[in-house]
Amino acid sequence: MEVIILSDPGRIAGLVADAVERRVRATPSSVLGLATGSSPLKIYEELIRRHRQSGLSFADAHAFLLDEYIGIPRSHDQSYYSVIRREFTNHIDIPAERVHSPNGESDDIAGEGARYDESIRAAGGIDIQLLGIGTDGHIGFNEPASSLRSRTRVKTLTEQTREDNARFFPSMSDVPRHVLTQGLGTISESRQAVLVATGAAKAEAVAAAVEGPVSAICPASVLQLHEHAAVIVDEAAGSAL
Ligand code: GLP
Question: pTM for the full model?
Fold first, then answer.
């Protein structure tokens, strides 16, 4: 696992955008694994800028979201499908039908995870997976105690994660309790994984992920076993390393 500490979020975004751009230029049909949350926003801004200014094209790319809420429709402005379209994919040339997310409205919610994993496999597997990290060490929505080999499935959010995400909803009672998330095993199959974190609130989770034991209690620690993973943080998020 490569650990990189940079002085500001703009440099983090530039470095990660370089990695995505290299992949997409080398293989235009690359499969991108996308994360929501505030952490990757600057990366998306930088990729949109490169698309507009230097012709970086995603016309042949595929994108798969990490996770999705259950209990709000896809059309809700806080569904991760809506968020990723608004923040990123609507502003580049990737065809809308190649932007995939777990279907939180599925009639067969228990079978949706296996269907999603199969669609990732059918697209050729994820080439580069972007990740943020929760304050409790979760990646995607794999909360502490998630199996290190888990597949895409339904999870129940912890109160901590619901509180962390309450800022996006009118009140705490509007925050969904259940989600679909790529599993830690699914994420581990990506060819390259890049976790980004900024701010002191992430420092403990980052330290546990990088320096702690590989343990289901800190789901992000599974990246220690990944053959091509990087953790890229600012000085505040790296302050407990
Ligand atoms: C949510 C998402 C995660 C994200 C985390 C941190 O729980 N499911 O993918 O990493 O939030 O979000 P932020 O980057 O806003 O701190």
Answer: 0.97
